[in-house]
UniProtKB/TrEMBL annotation:
Organism the protein comes from: Carnegiea gigantea
Transmembrane segments: 862-883
Protein name: Uncharacterized protein
Annotated keywords: Cell membrane, Glycoprotein, Leucine-rich repeat, Membrane, Repeat, Signal, Transmembrane, Transmembrane helix
Region: Disordered, residue numbers: 920-942
Length: 942
């Protein structure tokens, strides 16, 4: 007997050396303390984690939970045939659960949870007939739950949550008559919940949330008299909530959120006298609120949000003794006035009626809910004033009223809310001034009053709100100066005072706002230079000061090197662009347009490789385009118009593949247009007008197949119009006027059938005939071919351009009859073509020239003789009438052009009027909404 015991022990020692040294490599010396006792010098029964039987002959328990073990579970464990408890939980074990475990028939507890075990649950687990507790969750286990689980008839705890199990819940689960706890949460289980679950009559806790279970909830669950916790949230269960649930006398927690349950809430739920938490949110439940907190005396949390509930709240919803603390009815179809019944729920701490259709005034009796900490009434149609009684809610921390139609002033009583932390009043119609008392609420962290009509001054004492993180007063009518005390809100991260009537300078106390990351003050009347100390604000990321009257250097805004957007458009800033800006590697938007900045574009911009939007238009910038910008390969908008930039367009421009808008117009650029521009295949708008570009238009322009706008007007371009332009099929505006282009108008232009805004080839040296193909431009509204050397007849097809409302072909060498549809156009459109005729010009003579067959000289003579004598008088009369008509046309033409007297001047002016028209039509981008660039203000500053 003894001998046998010893040899058994030496086998065990061997086994454990195997386990210790090979299979469970111990991770750290620190952790090795657990196994430090595992040596042959020590009696094995004293090894840490091992428990032997009373006779020391068998190991009956192995507990190495939380011992930092890694490696996999050795199948040799199966030799510990007397093992009753195996606890290897909370280690870093990998590999699979060895099927040999099935040989340990005495096992009662298997705890392998919180490891990284993978693979499936071995079928052999079903041999463990004595198993009481099986907890193997929080691993990477996959595959199905084996049917053999049904053999574990002694099982009371089954935990396989937080794994990757798929497949169904086997109906054999119903054989586990002793099951008390079943936890299957967070797997990928499918199929329906087997009705056999109703046979696990001891079950107290059943959680199967966050799976993909579908079908109806089996009514048999209603048999589970012991059930205390039922969590089926976040599945795709459908059908209605079984009324049998009313039988769950011990149920404390019922969570069915995030399913597809429909129908009405069963009245029977009101029998659940133990119920503390009921969450039915995120389903398709309809009908009225059937739950009565007055009957569910234990109910503290009731969440019915995100359903299609409607109707009114039952009159007996609450009673004095109800214990409801949290009630959410948000996102349903409730309507009507604020449900006064709720005011009886005296223990309410959180009330959420947001996102419904409630309307009417907020009840002044709201202060009956004296325990309220959170009140969410946002996104309804509540109107009227904010009742002063709100000041009696002395526990209020979170007040969310945004998105309503609340009017009137903020009551001064708000200042009594000493615990208030968040106040959202945005998107209402409130007015009056912001009460000074608000600054008594010193715990305020988030204050958002955006989009009201608040006027008057920002309270001088605003600096008392030293916990403030967000202050948004955007889009109100606030005036006066920004109070210097604002700088004492030292925790402020977001400050947006944009769209108000604020004036005066930025206070120098801003230097204390060291946490500030977003500062938007656009659209005010702020003026003066920026305080130099703003340079101390190192955390600024987004700055928008556009549309003010700020002046001086922009250097104080460059203290931060984490800027992502800087917009100073439309101010009076002067001086150079600080090269320091380039230290902000994440800068994506830099808009400094319409200021008086001078100097050159700093070469340091080569480092700002994230730049997407660069707008430096309308300043006094000079110098050449630095090679640095070549690295800004993410640029989508490069707008440099109306400066004094010079030199050539560098060929690296072709590397800016994302470029959608390039505007270099009204500068002193010279040289040729680089053919590499053709590589910017995403260009939508290319504007190079009013520069000194020379040479030919590169045929590579034809590669810009997305181009909507091409404007090369007002340069010294020469040579032919490249026929490749026809490939720019999306062009709706093409201006090549005021250059020295020669040759014919390419027939191919007629293929640009999207041309709409204008085709302007005026003031060049173009010759030849007007191609008939231009008659295909059916959308064209304006066509200007004036001041060229075009000759021949006007193709009749041009007369069919029904969209055309402005035409100018004056000062060419055109001849012949005008298409009759031109007769209503102003005379000025045709002037300077000596041989054109027909209305509105003079009637054509001999318009039948060349038609018909030749007559003999005698016949001709005879006819002429006859005509001269018989119709000369009539002809004179007709000519007289024609002259009268012509003078009438002239009057019409002049009045059509808004009284611009001199016709030549009028033609000059037309070009410029053209720009005006465009503006009235809403610019380039509206015509092609798909290509509309995102509104930066919306994207970044709302
Ligand atoms: C389950 O038990 C049945 C009989 O009780 C037995 O035949 C079967 O082999 C067992 N299966 C497993 C996997 O344990
Ligand atoms: C349901 O899913 C949502 C979103 O995944 C998650 O935030 C929530 O905690 C889940 N609820 C429960 C009770 O598991
Ligand atoms: C604000 O606090 C001051 C004293 O700290 C008090 O006199 C005043 O009444 C308070 N205002 C409001 C509106 O509660
Ligand atoms: C472009 O203008 C610069 C002066 O700004 C001049 O030096 C250069 O020669 C010009 N280049 C061409 C091609 O005209
Ligand atoms: C028993 C012991 O010391 N366990 C530690 C092993 O190491 C992990 C971290 O690696 C700790 O979390 C355990 O507490």
């Amino acid at each position: 007997m003894l001998k046998k015991g010893i040899s058994r022990m030496s086998r065990l020692i061997l086994l454990f050396y195997l386990i210790l040294n090979i299979v469970f490599p111990v991770k750290s010396a620190e952790n090795s303390s657990v196994l430090s006792s595992w040596s042959s010098a020590t009696d094995i029964c004293r090894w840490n984690g091992l428990t032997c039987s009373d006779d020391q002959a068998h190991v009956i328990a192995l507990n190495l939970s939380g011992s930092g073990l890694s490696g996999s579970i050795p199948p040799e464990l199966s030799q510990l045939t007397s093992l009753q408890t195996l606890d290897l939980s909370s280690n870093d074990l990998t590999g699979s659960i060895p099927s040999e475990l099935g040989q340990l028939q005495h096992l009662q507890e298997v705890l392998l949870y919180s490891n990284s075990l993978s693979g499936g649950i071995p079928n052999e687990i079903g041999f463990l007939h004595k198993l009481d507790v099986l907890r193997i969750g929080d691993n990477l286990l996959s595959g199905k739950i084996p049917k053999s689980i049904g053999n574990l008839t002694q099982l009371s705890v089954l935990g396989i949550a937080y794994c990757q199990l798929n497949g169904i819940i086997p109906s054999e689960i119903g054989k586990l008559k002793k099951l008390v706890s079943l936890d299957l949460q967070q797997n990928a289980l499918v199929g329906s919940i087997p009705k056999e679950i109703g046979e696990c009559s001891e079950l107290q806790k059943f959680a199967a949330s966050n799976n993909m279970l579908a079908g109806e909830i089996p009514p048999s669950i209603g048999n589970l008299q012991s059930l205390q916790i039922l969590n089926l949230a976040n599945n795709t269960l459908s059908g209605s909530i079984p009324s049998e649930f009313g039988g769950l006398q011990n149920l404390k927690y019922l969570n069915l959120l995030g399913n597809r349950l429909s129908g009405e809430i069963p009245m029977e739920l009101n029998q659940l006298s133990q119920l503390g938490t009921l969450d039915l949110s995120g389903n398709k439940l309809s009908g009225s609120v059937k739950i009565l907190s007055s009957q569910l005396m234990s109910l503290e949390v009731l969440v019915l949000s995100d359903n299609v509930l409607s109707g009114s709240i039952p009159g007996n919803f609450c009673s004095n003794s109800s214990s409801l603390k949290i009630l959410s009815l948000s996102r349903n179809d409730f309507s009507g006035k604020f449900p006064l019944e709720l005011l009886k729920c005296r223990s309410l701490q959180q009330l959420d009626l947001s996102d419904s259709n409630f309307q009417g005034d907020l009840p002044s009796e709201i202060d009956q809910l004296g325990d309220l900490t959170d009140l969410y009434l946002n996104n309804n149609s509540f109107g009227g004033n904010l009742p002063p009684q709100i000041g009696n809610l002395s526990n209020l921390e979170f007040l969310s009223l945004y998105g309503n139609e609340i009017t009137g002033e903020i009551p001064a009583e708000i200042g009594k809310l000493s615990k208030l932390s968040v106040i959202y009043l945005y998107d209402n119609r409130m007015s009056g001034s912001i009460p000074n008392g608000l600054t008594n609420c010193t715990r305020l962290t988030y204050v958002d009053f955006f989009g009201n009509h608040f006027s008057g001054l920002i309270p001088d004492s605003i600096g008392r709100l030293e916990n403030l993180v967000l202050l948004q007063l955007r889009q109100n009518e606030l005036s006066g100066e920004i109070p210097p005390s604002l700088g004492y809100c030292r925790k402020l991260q977001m400050l947006t005072l944009a769209d108000n009537k604020l004036s005066g300078p930025l206070p120098s106390t801003f230097r204390f706002l060291s946490e500030l990351s977003l500062l938007t003050l656009y659209n005010n009347s702020l003026e003066g230079p920026l305080p130099e100390s703003m340079f101390l604000l190192k955390n600024l990321k987004i700055i928008n000061l556009s549309k003010n009257r700020l002046s001086g250097s922009i250097y104080p805004l460059t203290g931060s090197t984490s800027l992502s957007a800087l917009d100073l458009t439309n101010n009076n800033f002067s001086g150079p662009i600080p090269p320091r800006l380039a230290l902000s590697k994440d800068l994506t938007r830099l808009r400094l347009a319409r200021n008086s900045l001078n100097g050159s574009i700093p070469s340091e911009f080569s480092q700002v490789t994230e730049l997407i939007f660069l707008d430096l238009s309308s300043n006094n910038l000079s110098g050449e385009l630095v090679s640095g910008l070549s690295k800004c390969t993410k640029l989508e908008h490069l707008l440099l118009k109306s400066n004094q930039l010079s030199g050539e367009i560098p060929s690296w421009i072709g590397t800016l593949k994302g470029l959608g808008e390039l505007d270099l117009s009204s500068n002193n650029f010279n040289g040729t247009i680089p053919k590499e521009l053709g590589d910017c295949s995403n260009l939508l708008k290319l504007s190079l007008h009013t520069n000194k570009f020379s040479g030919q238009i590169p045929p590579e322009i034809g590669n810009l197949s997305s181009l909507n706008v091409l404007n090369l007007q007002g340069n010294n371009l020469s040579g032919l119009i490249p026929t490749e332009v026809q490939q720019c099929q999306k062009l709706f505006e093409l201006r090549l006027s005021e250059n020295s282009l020669t040759g014919h108008i390419p027939v191919e232009l007629g293929e640009l059938t999207e041309l709409q805004v204008i085709l302007d080839l005026s003031s060049n040296n173009l010759s030849g005939e007007i191609p008939q193909s231009l008659g295909n431009l059916m959308k064209l509204e304006r066509l200007n071919l004036s001041n060229n050397h075009l000759q021949g007849q006007i193709p009749p097809s041009l007369g069919k351009l029904s969209s055309l409302d402005s035409l100018n072909i004056s000062y060419n060498l055109l001849q012949g009859q005008l298409p009759s549809s031109f007769s209503l156009l102003p005379l000025s459109a045709f002037l300077g073509n000596k041989r054109l005729c027909g209305p509105p010009l003079a009637r054509c003579l001999g318009s039948s020239r060349g038609r018909g067959k030749w007559l003999s000289k005698a016949e001709v003579d005879a006819i002429i003789f006859a005509i001269v004598f018989t119709t000369s008088v009539i002809c004179l009369v007709i000519i007289y009438i024609m002259l009268r008509i012509w003078s009438t046309w002239r009057k019409v033409a002049v009045s059509n052009n808004e009284g611009i007297g001199n016709e030549i001047k009028e033609q000059d002016q037309e070009k410029w009027l053209g720009y005006g028209n465009e503006k009235r039509k809403g610019g380039y981008w509206k015509m092609n909404p798909k290509n509309m660039p995102p509104s930066p203000d919306k994207q970044l500053f709302t």
